[in-house]
Each structure stands twice: as C-alpha cells, then as structure tokens.
Amino acid sequence: MQRKALLASLMFTQAAVMAQNCPAPGAPVSYPLTRTVDQQDDYHGTVIADPYRWLEDANSAETKDWVEAQNKLTQNYLSQIPSREAIKTRLTKLWNFERFSVPFKEGGRYFYSRNDGLQNQSVLYTMKTLAEVPRLLLDPNTLAADGTVALAGLAVSPNGKYLAYSTAASGSDWNEIKVRDIDTGKDVDDHIKWVKFSQTAWLHDASGFFYSRYDEPKEATKLADVNYFQKLYFHKLGTPQSADVLVYERPDHKDWGFSAEVTEDGHFLVIHASQGTENKNRVFYKDLSKKDSKVIGLLEDFDAAYDFIGNDGPVFLFRTERNAPRGRIVSIDTRKPGVLSWHQIVPESSNTLVSASLVNNQLLVDYLSDAHSLVKVYDLKGKPLHDIELPGLGTAGGFSGKRSDSETFYSYTSFTTPSTIYRYDLKANKSSVYRQPKVDFDPAAFETRQEFYTSRDGTKVPMFIVSKKGLKLDGRNPTYLYGYGGFNISLTPTFSVANLAWLEMGGVYVMANLRGGGEYGESWHAAGTKLQKQNVFDDFIGAAEWLIAHKVTSPAKLSIGGGSNGGLLVGATMTQRPDLFAAAIPQVGVLDMLRFHKFTIGWAWTSDYGSSDNADEFKALVKYSPLHNLKKGVCYPATMITTADHDDRVVPAHSFKFAATAQADQAPNGAPILIRIDSKAGHGAGKPTNKQIEEVADRWGFLTRALHMPGGDPATATAAHSAATTTATVAQ
C-alpha cells in the first residue's frame, strides 16, 4: 500500500521485523472484512494514507456492524479456551473481600467508602465517631441496575450538612453534580450538568460551591468532540444551574483548564490554571471576604508545578518543582509575591516529593524513594521530626486533615498486601490498623524484588519482579511485563486481585518504572516526552531483554500489557520488536499518533507527545506511531486490543483502526489479532466489578493460550501454592 511505501524510510528495518511466515498456536483466524477508503493526508510534504478513517465515526451503522462482527469473533475465540471459566471463578472468589477507602473528616463527621466484595460500586458511609455504627449515605449501585453509574467525586460542606457528589455514566468523563442533605439522606433539587475534569469547592458558610464545566456539547457527538474553553462557576444552593455565576474564564486561551479550592480558613479561593497535561500550572486567587473582589494572578509564568498545601492568612504554602525537579516546599506571601521573597521550608532532596498536607500544625510529606513510599514529618519551619514507619516496600496514600487535627488516616499496599487502612496519631507518632481486608490467599507464598537494568542509552531503570517464592530461572516462566511511562505518572507497588490470579497461575508479574513517569521527578518525566519519547520504548524493550537474558522468561513466554498511554507503549513496542514477545495486550491505547489531538481532550496530551501539526514533532511521532508502523507480512505477537464504546478519553477509533490494520498486515498463519470492545464502559474509571472480572478473565485466558500454559487453572494453583515449585500449574 502507498502508506507503507511512504513510511518505509522512517521505520525500523531490523531483520526481526521483516516479512516472515510464522506458525500460529492454533487454527488460522478468519477476520471480518474491513473495507478501505482512499483517504490521504499531507503532513509537511509527506503524504500518509488512512484507509480506515471511516471507523472514526463510532455512531455510523457500518462501524456498529464492524464492532459487532469483531466482538463475535473475539468472544468465539475466547470461549474455546479451556481455562477461561476456571480463571473467572477464581477471580470472583478472590475479588469477594471487604475493602475500604481512607476515611476523612469534615464538619464533625467521618466519611469513607466500603465494598462488601462483589458490589459493582463501593458505597459511601458516614459516622460521627469511630466507635458508632456507620450509616449508609450514598449507594451508587441504586443509580443503575447494571452498576454502570459510578461515583466520580465528592465534597462535604464545612458544616457537615451537605454532600456534593458527581456521577459518571457508562465510564464517560462527563459528570453530573447533585447535592444530598446528609442528615436526611435525601437529595435536594440542585443539579449541575456538563462537568468534566473538575473539583468541587464549598464556601465556608456552605451556601454554595465552585466547579468547572464546558459548554453543552452536541448530544450525537459528545463522546468525540474536542473539549476547549473550560470555565469556573459558582453555584448557590437552591438555584438553577442557569443562575450560576461565572467566576473565571480565559477566552483568549481555549486550552486553559481550571480547578479551585477554598482555603481552610474560608478566606481565599485558590485557582489552579493548567494548560493541557503539561506538568506546570498557573495560580490565581480571590479574596472571599470582600464582596466582588477580583481574581488576582499570583504565579503566572507557567514555569513549574505548584500544588497548594495551606495558608497562614495571606502566606500560602506550595509544593513546587521550580528550581527543584524532585520537588520542595516554599511559602509565598501574597502581599509581596516576588520570587526573591519566597521562603524555602523543605528543600529538595534525593527523593521525589509527591505531596504534602498540613495536619496538627505539622507537614506530612509523601516521598518516592526508588518508586516506593517514604513519609516524613516536619514542623512548619521545615525541621525534620521523624518518619512514619511503613510495613515495607509499598505505597502509602492519604494523610489528609485539618491543621487542628491530631489524627489522620492513610492506606498502605504492596504487590502482595491488600490496601490496609491505618489511623495515625500525630501526637504519639503511632500508627494502628483501622481496617484490614482478608483475601483468600497466602502472601507468604510470594516474593517481590526490585532490579535495576540498563536501557539503550545507559540509563539505569528500576523494575519490580513479583512471583511465587523459589522461582526457577530456566527461561520458561510465563511473564506479564507492564508499563506506562508518561505524563509524570509514577507506578508504585499496589495490590491487584487481577495480578494475584496471574501469580497463582504460575505467572511472573513485572512492572517497569520507565522514563516519562514521575518516579524520579520532572527530569525523569521530561526525558520521556516529545522528541525523546523513544526513550520510553527503549526502556521497556530493555526490561524485556533483561528478563530474557537472566532467564526469568523467554520470548515464547513473554507478554506485555498497558493501558491508555501504556497502550501506546505496548503498540509501539510490539511494532518495533515483535521478536521479543509472544503476546501483547494494548488497552484503551493511544495508537494513532497523528490524529489523537483531534478528539475530546486529546489536544491536551501534546505536552507529552508533541503534535503532527509541528514538522519536527511529526517526524518523531510517525517513527513510533503504532498504527503507522505496522508492516505487511510481519509475524506480530498474539494480540488482544481492548477498548470501550463510551471511552471519551481515548476514543475507540484508535483501537478500531489499529486492529483493522494489524489484522490485514499479520503474517500468513500468524497469531490471532483480536479486539475486545466493551459496552456501556469507558476509559476504565468506575467500571463495575462484574465487568472488571470479565475483562481480566478474558485477558488471562487469552494469555494461557498465547504463552502455551496448559491448564492455566488458578483454582488448581491455589490448592498447590504452598509447594516450593511453580510446576503445579505451568508445564515446564
């Protein structure tokens, strides 16, 4: 095809990706016919064909027929995998455990969510003391019979009288805000629509709240239309949305987004202005004690990240990366805000400062040390007081509260530790278990180790390897390598029922901390963006090569997975080095790097990716764009692409076009290229438990066949997991 010829000079041409005939692990797959169109686009003098452009219209009858045919093929294939039902049964049993969120206190009440095990959505509870029986406040499972309406956010008024809560339907990013009277448990009449990427911030007197929204979209195209011109509004309780007051907008900057918070003393509104997903922001504020006060710019240079922590009257505390890529804490007096007047409270260290909170008139500072949590306590002058002792190599989160509180709550989790909730007494510097889930497995049967490997350019990159104890290094272990590598997002040790089932099956789980993430601060993030994005893929490939060289696994037993930006990671890596992997699972991935910015919020990702509208960035993008680097006749790994019909973050067209192209290009007798398209689901947030179980069962079932795992029955593995070998479930 012309597309292939035009891109030939831009693609990797190593022998590993040359046309070949590869034996499939089963009978050849007969794919639905997908028509092509003569669509061509000129990018700075380079003409690119887009033969499946018509699949971008998710509402057309032809696209819906294509989706139905692809789903039928995929489900027929998966239904023939003997282990799939056993995996689903074991997942259901594992998932059925009581779990809790971190409690928080507001207006003299505690609030937390709980899931009894298999509820599709967690339920919100409240209580006035820790000793009393909690009262159910909001059950999202009653909002939709199939559990597809999720609680997307909540904010309690400072007097503890009202709960403003936002809901998302079918996984969409579009939210609606309603208000519930906490005493009666009944909703009042207030109803806010067309909210997306917003916080809710109450006035101190609970008369109303601030929120961000977009203009009402066209109903038919609301899941695909680009989102620009977000505005910040104030809603007064008891009034219609049409009466809401516009607080701040920037019609001169369509790509600015706004989030707001009210200071604990109720004196100021603090507005954060972001520009896409750039790890920088501007800060404005408004004096709420003065009627009709103006919004004032405080930090307008857009030169770094600034996270508001708290205030002493007009003196604001921020976590910032200005002149400190790994973060520091400074105070800024709004009366003399010049940078020369800033006061440094906590200096930058060798660890990455993730967040900080102001509780008990102390700073609780959450760090990352080689991608796992380290929490320190400082006084307000920055003097180190002590560390909060954590159980091990894991991830801690929470630590919220008021300046006058002497207690806070946090969660701790690791790959083999379900999220346990702790109450921390700041006066005694003592943690105690508040809620500890009980899961049907033996954590002592598994082990986690951290390795550092060398990437292509010599950079040391960490990864976690989780397996049963006594892993035999013979290159025959089925392995799932997971990564993300983007948007300053850090991957840290976290418990997952899905991954536990994989481990019980005898699989090895590996998580690589790639550049582009935030594990080592802004420099680490920047090293995996725009013209340096290839570093991320090199890091992932380096992890695979290390695992193979050290006989943890082999190409015939190695699979890769990742979602969203991680889906891009998988797509780029499988097209660059298909020889390294037996299977690939790109989930809700950004796969068309030339057109991602033309849908919903995709334009915001140009801070990490660049844009095809820029000639130099186009040259970088087209070299790794998964859709544009598929080649006819290459033996690609067995691939299951996943997406959803309501994904308005990464629109399903990415996955549709990639699947159609990969199916057409796969080598004769090659492994299957399937696409799984979920219904009434979105990018992932708020997905009901039953849908999560179905998806994971399909993923692991697919891999049992692709990685030649006879049996692959996690129930059998559970019965044998006390043995010192993995041969109970995987034929070696």
UniProtKB/TrEMBL annotation:
Keywords: Hydrolase, Protease, Serine protease, Signal. It comes from Duganella guangzhouensis. The lineage of its organism: Bacteria, Pseudomonadati, Pseudomonadota, Betaproteobacteria, Burkholderiales. Belongs to the peptidase S9A family. The keyword Protease applies. Residues 1-19 form the signal peptide. One of its GO terms (biological process) is proteolysis. Residues 494-708 form the Peptidase S9 prolyl oligopeptidase catalytic domain. InterPro entries: AB_hydrolase_fold, Pept_S9_AS, Pept_S9A_N, Peptidase_S9_cat, Peptidase_S9A, Prolyl_oligopep/macrocyclase. It catalyses: Hydrolysis of Pro-|-Xaa >> Ala-|-Xaa in oligopeptides. It comes from the Bacteria. Residues 34-436 form the Peptidase S9A N-terminal domain. Its EC number is 3.4.21.26. Transmembrane segments: none annotated. This is prolyl oligopeptidase. One of its GO terms (cellular component) is cytosol. GO terms for molecular function: oligopeptidase activity; serine-type endopeptidase activity.
